[in-house]
Design a protein that fits this description.
72% of the residues lie in helices and 2% in strands. With 374 residues, the protein is mainly alpha-helical. The protein has one domain. Strands 1-2 form a two-stranded antiparallel ribbon. Helix 1 runs antiparallel to helix 2. It is globular and about 60 Å long.
């Protein structure tokens, strides 16, 4: 049997990663002019360097070590979310970040997404190993446990407030449970509950806003109000972002030529900057690269014989596809504006580091496939 190094990586995934890094740095460079900053590219490069360090560490310790200690990671993640609410300084009326002198800000909820995927993958794997042919009661008790594990970080994140990440937790849960093989009736029940809850909330919102504020509070009212901006294509950020995208035309206006300012061009609305600079053709190229990346991960899951690896990849793919659709869709007014970043492209330390950690885990899974194949 040919010896395979534990540091061997999937070359196709690595090439795609470097393409995304290049696109990220070029677009952030262009976005700097809109916010009068000249340090974002250097900071993003630093985050990428640290991210590759994370990949090296994860590949050194291996996925087995990470998976064995999943409850430790979960406790660390939950404690960090709780510490935010207790000790963090408010930034833009939110307690989502720890401020680290000389470094910037760290957002624990970004790391909690990866931790939650690992925890849920272990829970599903243990359940399937313990119950070969589970009854409805067995599945119900399992779902109660999953609900508790989901609810703790979801509530703490919602209180920050960060509704976008809560939606990601929920989507990860739905995708991974769907892959787990539990009865489909649970999804019908879940979606029915969600539809009823959303219907009640929106009903109160549209019928009597004063009653809505009394029940749910001003903060939640403002979040719902912001989410609904997309339905009528209103809002300063959305309108100016659409103007920028439309003015890009077929080939784009080139770097540093975005004609109009809109908030968060380096993070939430980075696709608007990219589309303006590189036009329709450039946008198609970027979306194609993202699609190839997603397909590679799906194929990796299909070819992998280890069930827990399948669960992990399904959670990662579900998270990535949702964020890609959400981020790009909201710049066109097709999706609610939730502050979701575009993976590997948007500026940001915490989100980028969490994605690089994810890449390290994926490289380990890919390396296992190579070992088994040989």
């Amino acid at each position: 049997m040919k010896r395979i190094s534990k540091y061997k990586v999937d070359k196709a995934l690595l090439i795609i990663l470097f393409l995304l890094i290049g696109i990220s740095l070029v677009t952030i460079y262009s976005a700097q002019n809109l916010i009068a900053s000249n340090t974002l590219v250097l900071k993003q490069i630093l985050w990428y360097v640290i991210g590759f360090g994370f990949i090296y560490v994860i590949m050194s310790v291996g996925n087995d070590y990470i998976l064995r200690n999943y409850w430790i990671w979960y406790v660390i993640g939950v404690v960090s979310l709780l510490a935010l609410l207790l000790f963090a300084k408010e930034i833009n009326n939110a307690k989502c970040w720890f401020q680290i002198p000389g470094i910037g800000t760290i957002q624990p909820s970004e790391f909690m997404k990866i931790i939650y995927i690992i925890v849920l993958a272990n829970m599903i794997n243990e359940f399937n190993n313990n119950y070969y042919n589970p009854t409805v009661g067995d599945e119900f008790r399992f779902l109660i446990k999953v609900g508790i594990v989901f609810a703790i970080p979801a509530i703490l994140t919602f209180l920050q407030p960060d509704t976008g990440v809560v939606l990601i937790y929920l989507l990860i849960t739905i995708v991974m449970l769907f892959i787990s093989g539990i009865r489909y009736r649970w999804f019908i029940i879940l979606f029915s509950i969600i539809i009823i809850f959303v219907g009640i909330v929106l009903g109160i919102y549209f019928i009597n806003t004063d009653t809505f504020v009394k029940i749910f509070g001003t903060s939640f009212f403002l979040r719902v109000d912001r989410l609904l901006d997309w339905s009528n294509s209103s809002g300063y950020q959305l309108e100016n972002g659409l103007v920028s995208i439309g003015s890009g035309g077929l080939l784009g206006m080139g770097l540093n030529n975005t004609p109009i300012y809109f908030p968060e061009p380096q993070t939430d609305f980075i696709f608007a900057v990219y589309a303006n600079n590189f036009g329709y053709i450039g946008s198609v190229i970027l979306i194609t690269i993202l699609a190839i990346f997603d397909i590679k991960l799906i194929n990796l899951a299909i070819k992998n014989s280890n069930l827990i690896n399948k669960y992990i990849i399904s959670g990662i793919v579900g998270m990535l596809i949702y964020q890609q659709l959400q981020n790009i869709g909201m710049t066109f007014g097709l999706m609610p504006i939730t502050g979701i970043t575009l993976p590997f492209i948007s500026y940001g330390g915490s989100s980028l580091l969490s994605y690089m950690m994810m890449i390290g885990i994926i490289f380990n899974i890919s390396n296992q496939n190579i070992r088994y194949t040989n």
